[in-house]
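Can anyone check this?
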Amino acid sequence: MFMALREDKIGQTWLIPPSIDELVPENHICHLIVALMDKLDFSSVEEKYRCTRGRPAYSRRMLLRLLLLAYTDCVFSSRKIAKLAEENVIYMYVTGGEKPDFRTICNFKIECKVLIAAAFLETVYFARSLGMVKLGNLPIDGTIIKAKASNQHSISEEDLELVQKLIDKGILADMEEDDLYGDERGDQLPPGSKDKIREIIEKDDELKGKLHKAGWNLLGNYVKGGAEEKQKVQETIEKARMELDKSGQDAVSLTDAESRFMKNKKGHKELSYNYQVAVDSDSSIIVASVISQDPTDHKQLQPVIEEIEKNLGPLPESTQITADNGYFSGESLRYLEKKGLDGYIPNKKQASKHKRKKSEDKPYSKDKFTYDLVTDEFTCPQGEKLVRKGKYFNKSTKKTFHTYYGANCKECPVKLECTGREDRVKVISCNEYEPERQRMALKMETPKAKEEYQKRKIVEQPFGNIKYNMKYIEFLTRGLNKIEVEKNLLNSVNNLKLIWNKITKNTNKNNQIKIQRTNNKNPKSISTT
């Protein structure tokens, strides 16, 4: 059986040139991006780019559309984005045929941080208008994302002090003199700045063998550089010192001083940031996010809730907040109670039980003792009272703890099993947040709490999309200011995809929401019917 063969039409001309948007499929997410970005007001941002001299700047609206489309396609490199704007018809559509240089795209991300944050908020507002964001239950969680920094380029406080000592002491003066006088002196050190540094330090018994790789690199930059480079080294040292004091860690990165050592899923410590998000449990729409330098989640609940309210206004008192055991801290629980929010956070033992992990069940552990909020007493499993008799200040946690002693432990038949020794009495220590902990623990034992806590799992969906679908496992920029931009782009893409899925699903089913043409200035807009 023979089949017809189509003719090769390469090079064929069109009598009527088509409009670029006619080449774009109707069901492409770029239409959503164009329509949403048309809702934003760019006038105040673009005002500073308006001038009568020089080459006109690119439209900020166009650059934002381009950036969001690239991120939805998991393209993060500015060079690759610039290439797509030249070669891909979809990108030609969102840029209007413009071809911005990769440097322009790079600079836009740095200069227009506020616009990118506004784009994220626009996705939240639009999702809310579609009924996707109901604010009934807001799961909160965090994930560790690696910083663009190597552990090998971190430096300890001891090495920082040593480098500064070498600079202040003038021990590098010989090398500077070599550069100044040249061969005429006849006593120059061998070529190579690091070799020169090493030879000088090896002569000093006090400094010999104490400096590590990052310190050598700093000194090398100081020696080889001019006045400007020397000033940069000094600024790097000062920045590193400041971040060391803030972090309380043993070392700090020289490439990204604001990153912190955090434990990843494999149990290895690497320089990272803690990416916190709050999502709506009905849709997985990210409603707020925070970049934290804290390796743990203990203090992150309040900043995230404050960010939610900054974006969407005060939360109703009935709003449910669900989070895992990492957020089970006295401060967080008290904050929820003061705000009147309905929190669901398990303690460590409850979390292990929820995950079906086996934990050692000790019959006389603290959780087996009942606390009476009215009398401020504990009751042991044998029915005896433990009363408060003292307090102490813990220097490591900087908190005051109250101690409760058993009154009748001497005659107790299970004293050895409970206290571990015949000559001891049972002592329980707890801080000022014990009432909040007890109330939450009791609440989490109820069937309703267990049911509501199940909704927390939805917060894992954005992280799975970002890390595994988008392959975004390391931040591309350095420093909190630039990381904020990356975070808002990731948030926007997560929300755009969910919104587009909702729109196309409804369009196919009952035509409730559709994308339609309006005019040339706004070729695509979103309307609900």
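Reply from J.R.: I decoded it. The first strand starts at residue 137 and ends at 146.
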